[in-house]
């Protein structure tokens, strides 16, 4: 599992970009989200030019911290039709 730390301000939107392989069916999903963090959605940013199967993309998740403190968000990278994740990532959010 890969981990990362970010600092944010309470009530301000923040983004977490994650490299994915959407063209091959691999997308990140939120595995664990504390109540103190509000999910505001996600989108896949397309790379310039024509996409081919297997090309990497960036999936961007948007959030807002609702409380001061340390909060952990966990993501997993998998295909929706498969049960096994190929990668996981933990993001520790310090909200002030």
SSE topology sketch:
Layout: E1 2-8, E2 13-20, E3 27-32, E4 37-45, E5 57-65, E6 69-78, E7 87-95
Describe the structure.
The protein has 96 residues and is mainly beta. The protein is 0% helix and 60% strand. The protein has a single domain (2-95), classed as Immunoglobulin-like (Sandwich), CATH 2.60.40. The strands form 2 sheets. A 4-stranded mixed beta sheet has the order 1-7-6-3, with no helix packed on it. A hairpin with an 8-residue loop joins strand 6 (69-78) and strand 7.
Strand content: over 45%
Element order, helices and strands?
A: EEEEEEE
Helix content: under 10%
What composes the largest sheet?
4 strands, mixed
Number of strands: 7
Radius of gyration: 14 Å
Number of helices: 0
> Regions with pLDDT < 50 over 5+ consecutive residues?
none
Global geometry: globular
**Which structural class should the secondary elements be placed in?**
mainly beta
Task: Please give the CATH class.
Answer: Mainly Beta
Proper CATH architecture: Sandwich
Largest beta sheet: what is the strand line-up? 1-7-6-3
Mean pLDDT comes to 91
């Amino acid at each position: 599992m890969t981990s990362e730390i970010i600092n944010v301000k309470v009530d301000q939107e923040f983004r977490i970009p994650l490299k994915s392989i959407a063209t091959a069916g691999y997308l990140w999903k939120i595995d664990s989200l504390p109540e103190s963090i509000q999910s505001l959605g996600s989108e896949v940013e397309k790379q310039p030019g024509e996409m081919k199967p297997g090309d990497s993309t960036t999936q961007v998740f948007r959030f807002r911290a609702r409380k001061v403190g340390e909060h952990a968000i966990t993501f997993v990278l998998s295909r929706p039709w498969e049960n096994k994740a190929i990668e996981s990532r933990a993001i520790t959010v310090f909200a002030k």
